[in-house]
């Protein structure tokens, strides 16, 4: 956006999938607005940026977001996926926005968690701004997959079809939230929003990021579901082989959203990784089984 300020109305346009779980509201999550930036924030300490997927939000990782906020400043920018100019509606354009966002918050270095399309944005950012990234966590990242992500919008007028498409994301279909599915359905009815969605899905499907991965200098955690149908396990192995300082973990019987499907296991792996990558001892203060 080029406007000097962002209103609540434009915020709704920027993030049509905006459900905030009650658990995070009770913990004190805050919506921040500054100039042309909007974000959710909770906690204090070193900053961790969470980049949600194409039709996602903080509802994809409430337990992880909430628990990490006990040790870190958790930040989820409302990415301008639906209001960038058409020629900038791609992962490179969103990475450029991320740089402006981090500069606005005056954060010299950050840790980034990127899921799905957000992972592709994180890949672009980490490869082109290596000095700004302390550590990188990718979960089911887009960028190498050949899966046609836009097929679910062919029948966008059918809410049941949209819900079934969301269920297919998870190994356990019951994880899919009907409320979130309704918001996805409502967002997809807007032709302008749909146009942006289709441009982004085309970008992550056509413009592969193989050339970017060797440029990532930050220690990187790759966290993948072993039944992920959107970004298959072969993609995870390619990420691992091409990112120099990376480690790969698979979660059993898990689909495309590890942080939502298996938050306890994800937290155990993430906190151990952050303890090593950021050289902190906070892992000793937590107990996971």
Could you characterize what this model shows?
α9 (233-242) links the parallel β7 (220-225) and β8. This protein has a single domain (8-150, 191-278), classed as Rossmann fold, CATH 3.40.50. Helices cover 38% and strands 16% of the residues. The protein has helices spanning 8-14, 22-27, 62-68, 91-104, 117-128, 159-167, 178-188, 191-206, 233-242, 258-261, 263-277, and strands at 30-34, 37-42, 47-51, 73-77, 110-115, 133-139, 220-225, 246-251. The chain has an 8-stranded mixed β-sheet with strand order 1-2-4-3-5-6-7-8, with helices on both faces. The longest helix is centred in the last third of the chain and has 16 residues, at 191-206. α3 (62-68) runs parallel beside α11 (263-277) and α4 (91-104) packs across α5 (117-128). It is an alpha/beta fold. The chain starts with 7 loop residues before the first helix and ends in a 12-residue tail after the last helix. 46% of the residues are buried. The model is unreliable at 1-5 and 284-289 (pLDDT under 50). It is built from 11 helices and 8 strands.
């Amino acid at each position: 956006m080029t406007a000097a300020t962002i209103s609540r109305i434009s915020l709704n346009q920027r993030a049509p999938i905006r459900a905030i779980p009650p658990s995070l509201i009770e913990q004190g999550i805050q919506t921040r607005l500054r100039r042309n930036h909007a974000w959710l924030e909770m906690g204090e300490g070193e900053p961790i940026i969470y980049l949600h997927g194409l039709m996602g939000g903080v509802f994809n990782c409430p337990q992880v977001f909430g628990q990490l906020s006990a040790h870190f400043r958790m930040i989820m920018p409302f990415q301008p996926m639906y209001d960038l100019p058409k020629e900038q509606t791609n992962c490179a354009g969103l990475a450029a926005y991320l740089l402006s966002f981090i500069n606005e918050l005056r954060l010299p270095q950050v840790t980034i968690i990127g899921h799905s399309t957000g992972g592709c944005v994180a890949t672009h950012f980490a490869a082109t701004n290596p000095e700004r990234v302390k550590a990188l966590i990718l979960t089911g990242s887009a960028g190498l997959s050949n899966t046609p992500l836009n097929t679910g919008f062919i029948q966008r007028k059918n809410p049941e079809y949209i819900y079934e498409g969301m269920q297919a994301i998870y190994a356990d279909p019951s994880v899919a939230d009907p409320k979130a599915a309704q918001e996805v359905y409502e967002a997809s009815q807007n032709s302008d929003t749909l146009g942006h969605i289709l441009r982004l899905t085309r970008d992550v499907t056509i413009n592969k990021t193989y050339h970017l991965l060797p440029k990532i200098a930050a220690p990187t955690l790759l966290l993948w579901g072993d039944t992920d149908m959107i970004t298959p396990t072969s993609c995870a192995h390619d990420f691992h082989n091409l990112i120099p300082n990376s480690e790969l973990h698979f979660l059993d019987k898990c689909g495309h959203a590890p942080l939502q499907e298996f938050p306890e296991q994800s937290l155990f792996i993430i906190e151990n990784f952050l303890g090593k990558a950021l050289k902190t001892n906070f892992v000793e203060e937590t107990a996971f089984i």
